[in-house]
């Protein structure tokens, strides 16, 4: 049985690392290197999660020379919009997400690893 867009989105949100990525991309566009630095997971693992999120329609990417930058995709359905709202409100009190945000802000202030 083929997975529906709703199934893919729920599966994407079911993994803690993918949830962390979605939360980070709520703030702004990030490259793989910066995501690896914040998440403390191998580059291959981060890329695999990004590919999963992209297939689910939750993120988009753009290429700039050697670097790929990821951002949250614009919501195309009310279901998609509500899932993103949940990231903003439902997970406000998740300590790991707050730590990720603080780490990403420090990384940005230091210039990050990928050129802008």
Polypeptide structure, described:
- The chain is an alpha+beta fold and 116 residues long.
- It has a single domain, classed as Arc Repressor Mutant, subunit A (Orthogonal Bundle), CATH 1.10.10.
- The protein is 59% helix and 12% strand.
- The protein has helices spanning 5-13, 16-27, 32-39, 43-55, 78-89, 95-109, and strands at residues 30-31, 59-64, 67-72.
- A hairpin with a 2-residue loop joins strand 2 and strand 3 (67-72).
- Helix 2 (16-27) crosses helix 4 (43-55) and helix 2 (16-27) crosses helix 6.
What can be said about this structure in brief?
The protein has 116 residues and is α+β, with helices and mostly antiparallel strands. It is 59% helix and 12% strand.
- Using the coordinates shown, work out and report the CATH topology: Arc Repressor Mutant, subunit A
Low-confidence stretches: none
CATH class: Mainly Alpha
Helix-strand pattern, N to C?
HHEHHEEHH
Helix content: 55-70%
The chain-level mean pLDDT equals 89
CATH architecture descriptor name: Orthogonal Bundle
Helix/strand class: alpha+beta
Cα-atom radius of gyration: 14 Å
Tell me the major beta sheet: 3 strands, antiparallel
The number of strands is: 3
Q: Which of globular, elongated, flat, extended, rod-shaped describes the shape?
A: globular
CATH superfamily: Winged helix-like DNA-binding domain superfamily/Winged helix DNA-binding domain
